[in-house]
């Protein structure tokens, strides 16, 4: 669906980098109002990068997900709440097992309202005292988003056992349980 068609349908986009994009699709994909979640690359300076280029750390891109959603069914604030509960927002060097610049966390805003909500949610999380270290997740304007190779799309569905082992072994699931419990 083109972005013009999305606008005509009343759909909006949200873009989040939370480390390995394999682990960021399922948490959003299961919510009513989420139309699609695409794994890809954004934030860098190389057009149409490959996975290998992004992993090299030379493109400036991060692994991210771009969500198309219906704001009449799920709000951007709800998407932000889901995002924060999937990451370690205090880690400047990557996420869990995955290290390096392509695994840093970021919120890429598409509108001024998204920027305002993202900054407010980050400030609220910082003030909550939930984490002992500063929140380092960046809030940046959205730029070009390049979908990742097909084998990276919907990985949790294509390779469910590998996906579950990876989440557990990476430390992501244990971190989420320790900091968010069953909220």
From TrEMBL:
Keyword terms of this UniProt record: Oxidoreductase
Pfam family, one: PMSR
Top EC class, one word: oxidoreductase
Entry GO MF terms: L-methionine:thioredoxin-disulfide S-oxidoreductase activity; peptide-methionine (S)-S-oxide reductase activity
Reactions the enzyme catalyzes: [thioredoxin]-disulfide + L-methionine + H2O = L-methionine (S)-S-oxide + [thioredoxin]-dithiol; L-methionyl-[protein] + [thioredoxin]-disulfide + H2O = L-methionyl-(S)-S-oxide-[protein] + [thioredoxin]-dithiol
Domain Peptide methionine sulphoxide reductase MsrA, chain residue ranges per copy: 14-164
Active site: 20
Free-text function comment from the UniProt entry: Has an important function as a repair enzyme for proteins that have been inactivated by oxidation. Catalyzes the reversible oxidation-reduction of methionine sulfoxide in proteins to methionine.
Family classification: Belongs to the MsrA Met sulfoxide reductase family.
Name of the protein in question: Peptide methionine sulfoxide reductase MsrA
Protein source organism: Alicyclobacillus acidocaldarius subsp. acidocaldarius (strain ATCC 27009 / DSM 446 / BCRC 14685 / JCM 5260 / KCTC 1825 / NBRC 15652 / NCIMB 11725 / NRRL B-14509 / 104-IA)
Protein encoded by which gene: msrA
């Amino acid at each position: 669906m083109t972005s013009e068609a999305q606008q005509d349908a009343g759909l909006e986009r949200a873009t989040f980098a939370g480390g390995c994009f394999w682990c960021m699709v399922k948490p959003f994909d299961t919510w009513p109002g989420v139309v699609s979640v695409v794994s890809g690359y954004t934030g860098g300076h190389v057009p149409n990068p490959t996975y290998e280029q992004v992993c090299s750390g030379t493109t400036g891109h991060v692994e991210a997900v771009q969500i198309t959603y219906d704001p009449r069914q799920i709000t951007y604030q709800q998407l932000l709440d889901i995002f924060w509960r999937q990451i370690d927002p205090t880690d400047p060097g990557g996420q869990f097992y995955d290290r390096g610049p392509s695994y840093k966390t970021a919120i890429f805003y598409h509108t001024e309202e998204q920027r305002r909500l993202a900054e407010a949610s980050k400030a609220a999380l910082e003030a909550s005292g939930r984490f002992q270290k500063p929140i380092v997740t960046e809030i940046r304007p959205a730029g070009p988003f390049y979908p990742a190779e097909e084998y990276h799309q919907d990985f949790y569905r294509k390779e469910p056992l590998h996906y579950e082992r990876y989440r557990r072994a990476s430390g992501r699931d244990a971190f989420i349980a320790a900091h968010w419990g069953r909220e």
